[in-house]
Amino acid sequence: MDLFTNKPSFFTKKIITTGMLLLLLGMLFGVLGALQYVIPGLLQNQVSFEKMRPLHVSAALFWIILTSMGALLTYLQEHTGKKIFSPLLMQIQFYLFVLAIVLIFICYFAGIFGGREYWEYPPYISILIVAGWILLLINYIKSIKSIKNQPVYIWMWLTGIIFFLFTFLESYLWVFPYFKRNIINDMTIQWKSYGSMVGAWNMLIYGSSVFLMSKIGNNKAAAYSKTAFTLYFIGLFNLMFNWGHHIYTLPTHQYVRVVSYAVSMTELLLLGHIIYDWKKHLTVSQKFNSILSFRFLLAADAWIFLNLVLAIGMSIPAINVFTHGTHITVAHAMGTTIGINSMLLIAFVVDILYADQQKNKSIKKWVTIGFWMSNTSLLIFWLSLIIAGVLKAKWQMTTEPEVFSSMMAQLRPFFMVFLFSGTTLAFGICLILIPLLKIKQDVKGN
Question: Which tens digit of pLDDT belongs to each residue from 84-103?
Answer without folding.
Answer: 999 999 999 999 999 999 99
